[in-house]
Design brief:
There is one protein chain. This protein is of the alpha+beta class and 398 residues long. It has a single domain, classed as Orthogonal Bundle (Cytochrome p450), CATH 1.10.630.10. 49% of the residues lie in helices and 12% in strands. The protein is built from 14 helices and 13 strands. The strands form 4 sheets. A 5-stranded mixed β-sheet has the order 1-2-10-7-3, with helices on both faces. A hairpin with a 7-residue loop joins strand 5 and strand 6. The termini are far apart. Pfam families: p450. One of its GO terms (molecular function) is heme binding. This is Cytochrome. InterPro entries: Cyt_P450, Cyt_P450_B, Cyt_P450_sf.
């Protein structure tokens, strides 16, 4: 347990929330495994994070017993079974089939962006980008766009406050949306109508050790979809702001990448990977220790909360040469933006595809992207935990 442990920092402090990235950089150098009341033991060093990922038997993903979390809140062998169902939706074949739909969504959104006047891309564009791709992937109606965007914000606020009552209400609201979609898919199947990913989940079979093969329960499907949705909407919308801001702040690299468009995808893909390393769209993930252990020279008791800080791990000077500098051609083997080990992000192939297409279409459709007017205030405003990136990104598209 972490009761009565001296606190080394406070994630919810004004200083940390004002500039998360800078605060995490400071903690990595000052106290690589740091305790606070909100996060438990936060892990900031790349090597220490990798150790956690390599030892799921010590650092368990079952951080809550109040509800199931498919598959990210499970350990083996249960995790292995559900992960097999999960991963079939992100194969190269599926993504090749889905790529034209993503490009169409992105192209239409970029075409609608105003030219020659200042626009805040976090006000509409970034959320619509994430939501419409999600809808296309799942086969969901456009009418879900607004309520799910509002749901993400409610979930963010409840998480930051650790308001368990509100978290429960927000979860129930999401469950209601998804159960209605599942019921509608059952009706469509009975009528012989075409099916989609949401409907396919109803027929997927799995077999837990010692049990007979079966389909997933509605509770399990809702949990899996919640995992996809929270990960997709909050992180991908953050990515949109991060990428637009990077291009606006780095005109020479913007020009180089625009020139590379006729030479294949490699330069754009490498740039996206490096931008995500520098500004990780996912701040943290949780674990709980199954036994007393030592990490980064610090003793951590059994049943303690441990928080992986991805943002810091990917900027670790001991893992990357000139770690805080942008270098799209660097060795990315220690880049943990999508995690590692048995819990590596299942949607990583989709995320890489979405972000590459976003950058390609932004560069194709514009001649320039520059920061907005900063005579009175910065053109960017940092997001607060648990969101990464920016709450405001004002730019002018030319």
């Amino acid at each position: 347990m972490t009761d009565n442990v001296k606190n080394d920092w406070d994630l919810r402090s004004e200083k940390v929330q004002k500039n998360q990235v800078a605060a995490y950089d400071e903690m990595r150098r000052r106290c690589p495994v740091a305790h606070d009341e909100f996060m438990g033991y936060s892990v900031f060093k790349n090597a220490d994070v990798q150790h956690v990922l390599d030892h799921p038997e010590i650092y368990s993903n079952v951080v809550s017993t109040r509800h199931i979390a498919v598959p990210n809140g499970m350990d083996a062998p249960e995790h292995t079974t559900f992960r097999a169902v999960n991963d079939k939706y992100f194969t190269p074949e599926r993504l090749r089939e889905f790529e034209p739909k993503i490009r169409e969504v992105v192209k239409n959104l970029v075409a609608d962006l105003p030219r020659g006047i200042e626009v805040n891309v976090m006000d509409g564009f970034a959320q619509a980008y994430a939501m419409r791709i999600q809808n296309a992937f799942m086969g969901w109606p456009a009418s879900l766009e607004k309520p799910l965007i509002e749901w993400i914000e409610k979930n963010r606020e409840a998480t930051l406050r650790r308001d368990r009552e509100q978290i429960g209400k927000v979860a129930l609201e999401f469950d209601t949306y998804i159960r209605e979609l599942l019921d509608a898919r059952r009706e469509r199947a009975a009528a012989g109508n075409p099916q989609d990913v949401t409907a396919e989940l109803l027929t997927d079979t799995m077999q837990l050790p010692g049990q007979e093969s079966r389909t997933m329960t509605d509770e399990e499907i809702v949990s899996l979809i919640r995992n996809w949705t929270v990960g997709e909407l909050s992180t991908v919308s953050a990515c949109a702001g991060i990428i637009v801001n990077f291009l606006a702040r780095n005109p020479q690299e913007q020009a180089r990448l625009r020139e590379s468009l006729g030479e294949g995808h490699a330069e754009i893909a490498a740039a996206v990977e490096e931008i995500m390393r520098l500004e990780d769209p996912l701040v943290t993930n949780r674990r709980v220790t199954t036994e007393d252990t030592v990490l980064g020279g610090r003793t951590i008791p059994a049943n303690s909360r441990v928080t992986i800080n991805w943002s810091s791990a990917n900027r670790d000077e001991d893992a990357f040469e000139d770690a805080l500098a942008y270098n799209p051609h660097r060795d990315q083997s220690r880049n943990l933006v999508y995690g590692d080990g048995i819990h590596v992000c299942p949607g990583a192939p989709l995320a890489r595809l979405e972000l590459r297409l976003l950058m390609e279409e932004l560069l194709k459709a514009t001649k320039s992207i520059v920061p907005g007017d900063e005579s009175d205030a910065p053109a960017t405003e940092n997001a607060t935990y648990p969101i990464s990136g920016y709450s405001t990104v004002r730019v002018v598209f030319g």
